[in-house]
Amino acid sequence: WVIKDFKSVQHRIESPEFESGGCRWCVVVHPNVDNCISMYLLVSGCEDLPPGWKIHAKYWLSIESPYGRRAINSVARCFDSEGPAWGLSNWLHRSQLDDGVLDPHGDLKIDARVEVLHKSDPMFTWVIKDFKSVLDRRIIKSPEFESVAADGV
């Protein structure tokens, strides 16, 4: 992902969505928080995932330039509704942008790699209306539902 003329970017910016391990992701960059650059990996569309979702993944984020590479090397993290993004705040001080971080045109190139280690299965919820009226039955049959494959989150 290339952010053109990075020094002119003033507000949070998200990469185009990409897929890895059957999940949708994007990179979020905050270009100026306390004069630093923050970068995170976010589960894209996380607000639409079913309750209880979890994705265990290992990720690598790096800035690529003609002069070298600066990387966030990650251990495995659990992405869920409480923590749908992981990364580093204050990752790089803005004064370092002129030290070979940007390419000669002032663009910032970010590389993101994700390895999904495990995903939780979406939950099936069955609401029984007027539960008291069915208490005398021995068996109550749920509606049919489909199980989503392991990569269907």
TrEMBL record:
The keyword Coiled coil is assigned to this record: yes
Highest taxon listed in the record's lineage: Eukaryota
Pfam family, one: MATH_2
Domain MATH span(s) in chain numbering: 1-114
UniProt entry keywords in alphabetical sequence: Coiled coil
InterPro entries linked: MATH/TRAF_dom, MCC, TRAF-like
Matching PANTHER family: MATH DOMAIN-CONTAINING PROTEIN (PTHR46236:SF35), TRAF-LIKE SUPERFAMILY PROTEIN (PTHR46236)
Protein name: MATH domain and coiled-coil domain-containing protein
